[in-house]
Amino acid sequence: MDSTNDSITVGVRCLGDRDIPRYQTPGAAAFDLAAAADLVVAPGQLALVPTGLVFAVPDGHFLAIVARSSLPRRGLIVANGLGVLDSDYRGPADEARVLVLNYTDAPVSITRGDRIAQAFVLKVPRVAFVPLAHDDGQGSRGGFGSTGT
Ligand SMILES: O=c1ccn([C@H]2C[C@H](O)[C@@H](COP(=O)(O)OP(=O)(O)OP(=O)(O)O)O2)c(=O)[nH]1
């Protein structure tokens, strides 16, 4: 398979002694985000895990934060499904954080440096909304299983 590899530049500010993120393999779609602090997530509770990184994503893009596949094995999920880091979230205190939920009934420890999530940048169009007539002749197709299982 062949395709031209797009690449964009993303500014990153490392708080403290954090390293610049990197791709783990040449073909990795996302780079990992590591915890910047030790913490214990209580059973059934949410925690915001600091990454020690501030990203300056180009306008018209956002940084998507998702779980690493291995995260549920350690009792955690990324609670907001997909974290959206906006291009205007780039001030000195605008640190990327990972919102995790401990879905187990035991405490889960996170150690500074643990790679808990991954991130990638996507282009997103700005939408200009146009009002639609209530009935534009299209008809409703139904959903939520209307085509069968
Ligand atoms: O998983 C996430 C999600 C968001 N953010 C940061 C970047 C994002 O730009 C900002 C606001 O996120 P969002 O708009 O999703 O949050 P909100 O709940 O709508 O709050 P706000 O009123 O701050 O927009 O928080 C993270 O660091 N991690």
Automatic annotation (TrEMBL):
GO biological process, one term: dUTP catabolic process
Pfam families: dUTPase
Domain dUTPase-like, residue spans: 19-148
Catalytic function, reaction form: dUTP + H2O = dUMP + diphosphate + H(+)
EC number: 3.6.1.23
Molecular function via GO: dUTP diphosphatase activity; magnesium ion binding
Annotated keywords: Hydrolase, Nucleotide metabolism
Protein family: Belongs to the dUTPase family.
Protein name: dUTP diphosphatase
Species this chain originates from: Luteitalea pratensis
Gene name tied to this protein: dut
